Amino acid sequence: MAFYEWCDMLETGIPDVDEQHNAVLRMLNDLHESLNRGKGKEEIVRVMDSLMRYTTNHHETEEKLMQEHGYPELSAHRSEHLALRQNAAFFQECWMKTPDSVRSMALVKLFSEWFITHIENTDFRYVEFLKVKGITPTSLQ
Ligand SMILES: [Fe+2]
Ligand SMILES: [Fe+2]
Question: What would be the CATH architecture of the domain defined by 14-132?
Answer without folding.
Answer: Up-down Bundle (1.20)
